[in-house]
Design a protein that fits this description.
Layout (H helix, E strand, L loop, with lengths): L1 E6 L3 H11 L4 E7 L10 H4 L9 E2 L2 H6 L4 E4 L7 H13 L3 E4 L13 H14 L2 E4 L10 H6 L5 E12 L6 H7 L16 H4 L4 H11 L5 E10 L4 E3 L2 E3 L4 E12 L2 E11 L13 E9 L2 E6 L7 H14 L2 H6 L3 E2 L20
Parallel strand pairs: 1-2, 1-4, 2-3, 4-5, 5-6, 6-15, 7-12
Antiparallel strand pairs: 7-13, 8-11, 9-10, 11-12, 13-14
Helix pairs in contact: 1-10, 4-5
């Protein structure tokens, strides 16, 4: 049985912690939290499953000193990657393998440049440990799905991965308003993602990983961002959307290969179902391939009336949880989806837990 630590207990972290508690191959031995109201409480209570006998702590040094095989690192790292990278390297150097959902570009660390790759490799070497970054989109739909499909194609003219979701129930005001720009003026300069190369830049890593897996070389990237505006005010879980502010967002990154737009990852998000009626709609992910053969693969989530955002966070958590065993079994170093065996859901063939 592998000893594991849960780092952060946000929406994704709570799902991961609850899943690890009843996983036959894993034993939770530590929980790190950031808020005073969570510190000192039982980790099981933080994710709604009752006591598990592990007390949550805010003490980073305590976690670094704890003996464990793997850490699920699920801090909010995309807005400020440097501290997250410091944490991850410290954990790796301390002798703990790390599976992370925190910094999207780490799905393919080369996308962050040689300095980051060198830091991770040195930390892995020092601790004889392995690092893997994952997610659901990016982290599954834009990498695992198209790479799995690629084995049946003779040639691919273009490949498009789309995430199609309604974020009205997503209760994360910072991500929706400050990063993505919902509820803000369309030209607001203080929105982190107002520049499409920053917002859609999160897709550079999966596009580079796909190109690597397919043996292609990317010439350059093109980025796009489109919005539609609310005609009347309304409320969502994260706050209020006023008239004339953004209610739907569409952004994409395209990899140009051999002079043509070959690989595209696009995110289409609404805060109400009737927004942007001309844009693609759905609940989940869609991979469209033009080639020989051409093919469309659709993955729908929350088909039984569940909340799609919560279920997407659950999927993100589980892709990380299921990666723990193969990551711990892998040789030391950085391991992307190109280096690991297929991440399978061992022990999932059972009735849904209460």
């Amino acid at each position: 049985m592998l000893r594991v630590i849960q780092w952060a207990t946000g929406i994704v972290g709570r799902h991961a912690l609850a899943a690890m508690v009843d996983h036959p191959d894993l034993e939770v031995v530590g929980v790190l939290v950031y808020s005073e109201d969570k510190a000192g409480r039982d980790g099981g209570e933080l994710c709604g499953i009752g006591p598990i006998g592990v007390t949550a702590t805010k003490d980073r040094d305590e976690i670094l000193a704890l003996e464990a095989d793997c850490v699920l690192y699920m801090a909010q790292g995309d807005a400020n990657p440097a501290p997250a990278l410091d944490d991850i390297c410290a954990l790796l150097a301390s002798g703990k393998n790390v599976v992370s959902t925190a910094v999207t570009p780490l799905i393919y660390p080369a996308s962050m440049g040689p300095i980051v790759v060198d830091r991770l490799e040195k930390a892995c070497a020092e601790g004889a440990t392995t690092f893997h970054a994952t997610g659901i989109e990016p982290g599954w739909a834009s990498e695992v799905l198209p790479l799995t499909m690629s084995g049946i194609f003779r040639c691919v003219d273009s490949l498009l991965v789309q995430e199609l979701l309604d974020y009205s129930s997503y209760d994360n005001a910072f991500m929706l308003f400050d990063v993505m720009g919902f509820g803000r003026a369309p030209d607001a300069k203080d929105v982190i993602g107002a520049d499409p190369s920053i917002l859609a830049g999160v897709f550079r890593a999966p596009l580079m990983l796909i190109a690597d897996g397919l043996g292609a070389t990317i010439d350059r990237f093109d980025f796009d961002r489109q919005v539609t505006l609310a005609e009347q005010p309304f409320d969502v879980a994260a706050g209020r959307i006023e008239t004339g502010t953004v209610e739907a967002l569409r952004f994409s990154a395209t990899a140009i290969v051999d002079g043509r737009p070959a690989l595209t990852v696009e995110h289409v998000t609404r805060l109400r179902p009737d927004a942007a009626p001309d844009w693609p709609s759905g609940r989940g992910w869609k991979v469209t391939v033009e080639g020989r053969p051409s093919m469309v693969l659709e993955a729908k989530i929350a088909k039984n009336g569940e909340d799609e955002n919560d279920q997407g966070c659950l999927g993100t958590a589980m892709h990380a949880v299921h990666a723990i065993v193969p990551v711990c079994a892998a040789p030391p170093g950085i391991k992307t989806f190109l280096d690991l065996p297929t991440i399978m859901g061992r022990h999932v063939l059972r009735f849904t837990p209460a």
